[in-house]
Amino acid sequence: MPDGGTGIGAAVKRVEDKRFLTGRGNYTDDINRPGQTYAYILRSPHAHAKINRIDTSAAASAPGVAAVFTGADMQVGSLPCGWQIHSKDGSPMHEPGHPPLAQGKVRCVGDQVAVVIADTYAQAKDAAEKIVVDYSPLPAVIDMNKALGGKTLVHDEIGTNLCYDWEIGDAAQTDAAFAKAAHVTKIDIVNNRLVPNAMEPRAAIGEFDQATGEYTLYTTSQNPHVIRLLMGAFVLSIPEHKLRVVAPDVGGGFGSKIYHYAEEAIVTWASSRVRRPIKWTADRSEAFISDAHGRDHITHAELAMDSEGKFLALKVDTKANMGAYLSTFATCVPTYLYATLLAGVYTTPLIYCNVKAIFTNTVPVDAYRGAGRPEATYLIERLVDRAAREMGISQVDIRRRNFIPPDAFPYQTPVALQYDSGNYIATLDAAQKAADVDGFEARRKASAAKGKHRGLGYSTYLEACGIAPSAVVGSLGARAGLYESAEVRVHPTGSVTVFTGSHSHGQGHETTFAQLVSEKLGLPMENIEISHGDTNKVQFGMGTYGSRSLAVGGEAIVKALDKVIAKAKKIAAHIMEASDSDIEFKDGVFTVAGTDKTLPFGQVALTAYVPHNFPHQELEPGLDEKAFYDPLNFTFPGGCHICEVEIDPDTGVVKVERMTAVDDVGRVINPMIVAGQIHGGLAQGIGQALLEGCVYDDDGQLVTGSYMDYTMPRADNLPSFSVGTESTLCQHNSLGVKGCGEVGAIGSPPAVINAVVDALWHLGIRDMTMPASPQVVWAAINSARPAAAAE
Amino acid sequence: MYAFDYHKPSSVADAIAALKGAEDGKFVAGGMTLIPTLKQRLAQPSDLIDLGGVKELVGITVSGNTVTIGAMTTHAAVAKSAEVAKAIPALAALAGGIGDPQVRNRGTIGGSIANNDPAADYPAACLALGATIKTDKREVKADDFFTGLFETGLAEDEVIVSVSFPTAEKAAYMKFDNPASRYALVGVFVAKAGGGAKVAVTGAGQNGVFRVPEMEKALSTNWSADAVAGLKVDAGTLNADIHASADYRAHLITVMAKRAVAAAG
Question: What is the tally of helices (H) and strands (E) in chain A?
């Protein structure tokens, strides 16, 4: 590590923050192209309606309007789904069309009906008001239970609202285990639907170069190469060499900017028709009804135990809302990112899970920070908590009794995954200490003396990051590879640009990745540039989601760095007239082992580009290496979250008094960035548990369509967090890293709700729904009071 | 936002003249409600008459037992006024709890009560303290001013000049925030003055802000939290939405009333 500490493990201040904090970021909406026009998307006010006729004539002749297009004009490919699931009977999932502009029918409030392109945004919006759409409203299906077996079909052509009926595990063996159980604990869980709410709303600019026939799309994306592939190949039939996708600075994604959205296709397609660049930027209200939502599961689960509380088998039945259309990765979330996690950190030998994915007249649902794993974690940890209470075992003992022991790795679960490493006892011990669990009873008494109820809740969780390897996910239905690529370009004077296929939209890659280079090449941070987000610069990439950037993208950078070092050693050996095998490289200096002969990295770089004294017979000039890294397995971060709440029975307000997270994220490259990621995840996890929740009315109108009704977490909803790491190293990547982007949002919701249940258990309250808003908690207390009084 | 003509008069008379001269004019005070409404294209006035240039509408004076606040005085100014804090501390505290700093620096008392949002804070203070609203034409008692949801006794071309609050022996405002919007889900202002007590509730009523005679009667004879603990507003008269049922609101009114009385001392 160079002086000052900028290598692995150093809490380097985020280099990108200077431009963000001084307002010099370059976001999609900051970009303006010569001759640019503006698009306004006319959206459906109905959840479900037939479109009889659209009259655009008045809009087309309105001031400033360049063009008006409807689905009749835009006859292109369907927005594709990236993962094909097969039902338990072997049949492929139903994949109804997803047109960028509605074709005769709208299927959710917010569905795209027409686009107006004008000189200004206001003109486009004015003109859109002149479009007359003749709708015949149809009954809407909003509730998943009603969607199955009901007459209303979201997609008439598939004859059902059931997208797939999937299973994993051995049902017969699981049932047999249940038959022998000493006790069975049952639970019904709703995992509430969330709106992602990235700080920057989505935006897109489409541009067509008449001279070259090349399209450029600037977009708020977490994975520009994936968008280029999906939109180019499946929707608009534009070959990659004529399509550039740029995802510049992006202000948060949380999953919602992974997917290929209609607006991207619309502005790109229309730009060649109007022959001017077209910008579209969502306003906040539009984001609520056009960004893919998250979660939305209904689950019944049963846990079979022996008389000692040892888990024998788990049976899970889940309904997962797909919304009106299949968003890009919607189908893998409730299957391979959910049911495969149902072993959690426990040795449950038998698990069976059935998942029904259901179409409704709501905004499409897809991955949102955690994606499947928060749903699995919430289910397991609520169930374990309930089981402990029913069995008369402490919350801690039931977990310890069932943990996968630290010496059992690699550990094969009954639901496909093989965990490589972990120590759940260590994270639990460390979290209990950090949370001062020993002092809890005294704090509970102090709260009771004030008339308040205090509770403590645990979540000992595990998740899977860096979804891989490609060969395996391909066999499970993924229509993409899940590797990452990197190019390390050493410049003649020894500075370095790294081109990565990962995409940073808040994660701080420009710092973390530069620290890898600093560590490996011994360079100061200012000599390293991390470049991402432009398909014309970066060779290829699968992007950023599922906490994969370091474990997959970072490993690709390391592989490319190793190639650079290997070549540089040969050049150094040639210059110093030594054998390759005698060259050592440390802190940016090549040394001939056992001698005082040294050569700085910069000198080798210069020689690579000014190859006067160079081993031409063995090497090509230049120092520029690429690598693609396809991992051998997922990584498995895990840990323990402990939440302590105090509840005011008069109002139902739940105050989070303490939130402790001890996570095993593998090797930590930058502890400050890891802490920041965990803080953000905890805020979203507490948000899901106590504050956030999407409400649709029976007609399919989104009641929580703005911040007046959708409760975003704010600073005063949150305590000062206690976060720490207690890591084991990943066994199958060289860095030993696992991922940290989602652990906060995955681990924390059950800890919060378990704490609420703990606080209220003595009142006879046995369950609590998310979000545990003041009204919900007060109603539970209010209805428990007469029951408690009667006892 | 649709296009409109913008006027910035410097006197009340000019403001009224501008409104009268407009086809469908609207006064704008701080704009904390009207500007978002315009941005969402939910209103389309032909002319916007900005009262921000009318200096005579700004300021706070305390004279004897009366605090008079100019209509265009911001919430922030009221919140940080030492005179208000001394004369009616509950009023300064209420102003300091409206919205967020940006709202408090733009929003005004005149705008708030003219809009009469059923979840606004100031109407509760006006009723409980027995305020008098002075307009360019007349003086109106608060009890006669608030007439329904977003409805007041103001004529179209009538401008609020100031609001006068009599001081109280004891007063306090307790607000239970809507978790999302942070408007009052239930806000209760209690005041003890002149041998009687007044209790006003905002955020909860189907017709906006209202007084609770039973609580006032109880508090007039026994100013204590216990006096209102057993009194409950009929849930049938209250709002229900996704954040609070009418029953929950009815319960919260009692809880907030108790807490307000306790806080008032």
Answer: 19, 28
Per the CB < 8 Å rule, is B180 touching A710?
A: yes
Q: Measure the CA–CA gap between B78 and B108, rounded to whole angstroms.
A: 9
CA neighbor of A551 nearest in space, from A430, A407, A373, A421: A421
CA–CA distances in Å: residue A576 to residues A317, A494, A570:
67, 18, 10
B94: CB partners within 8 A, 6+ apart:
B121, B122, B124, B125, B173, B175, B189
**A chain contacts of residue B245, beta-carbon cutoff 8 Å:** 775, 779
What lies within 8 Å, CB to CB, of A388 at 6+ separation is A309, A394, A395, A397, A398
Burial class (CB in 10 A: 0-12, 13-18, 19+), B64: exposed
Mutation pick from B176, B243, B245 vs chain A, by most beta carbons of A within 10 Å, is: B243
CA distance B52 to chain A (A): 26
Q: Please state, in angstroms and rounded to a whole number, the distance separating the CA atoms of residues A402 and A380.
A: 12
- For residue A158, which phi and psi values (nearest 5 degrees)? -100, -10
List the pLDDT tens digit at each of the 265 positions of chain B.
899 999 999 999 999 999 999 999 999 999 999 999 999 999 999 999 999 999 999 999 999 999 999 999 999 999 999 999 999 999 999 999 999 999 999 999 999 999 999 999 999 999 999 999 999 999 999 999 999 999 999 998 999 999 999 999 999 999 999 999 999 999 999 999 988 999 999 999 999 999 999 999 999 999 999 999 999 999 999 999 999 999 999 999 999 999 999 999 9
Burial A502-513, CB ≥16 within 10 A → b, else e: bbbbbbbbbbbb
Place of tokens 């059992």: A408
The residue among A566, A476, A481 whose CA lies nearest residue A166 is A476
Does A410 sit behind a cis peptide bond, omega within 30 degrees of 0 on the bond before it? yes
Q: What is the ipTM of this complex?
A: 0.96
Of A650, A773, A779, the CB nearest to B179: A773
- Beta-carbon contacts of A674 under 8 Å, excluding residues fewer than 6 positions away, are A665, A668, A725, A740
Concatenated DSSP letters of B154-198: --TT--EEEEEEE--SEEEEEEEE-TTT-SEEEEEEEEEETTEEE
Pairwise CA distance, residues A495 & A493, whole Å: 6
Number of Cβ within 10 Å of residue A91's Cβ equals 10
d(CA A634, CA A202) in angstroms, rounded, equals 30
Query: Helices B122-129 and B89-96: crossing angle, nearest 10°?
Result: 170
| Geometric angle at alpha carbon A216, from A213 and A221, rounded to 5° | 155
Using a CB–CB cut-off of 8 Å, the residues of B that contact A are: 1-2, 40-41, 176, 179-181, 183, 242-245, 248, 251-252, 255
The size of the A-B interface in CB pairs under 8 A is 40
DSSP state string for A168-237: ES-HHHHHHHHHT-SEEEEEEEEE--B----SSPPEEEEEEETTTTEEEEEE--S-HHHHHHIIIIIII-
Among positive and negative, which fits the CA dihedral A146, A151, A157, A162?
positive
Q: Which residue has the tokens 């007044």?
A: B198
The number of helices, as runs of H, and strands, as runs of E, in chain B is 12, 14
A708 vs B contacts (CB less than 8 Å): 180-181, 183
In chain A, which residues touch B (CB < 8 A)? 122, 125-126, 285, 650-652, 691, 695, 703-704, 707-712, 773-775, 778-779, 782
CB A731 within 8 A of CB A666: no
- Strand, helix or coil at B91? helix
Question: Maximum CA pair distance of chain A?
Answer: 95
Structure tokens at A701: 């109108």
Of B41, B180, B255, the CB nearest to A650: B255
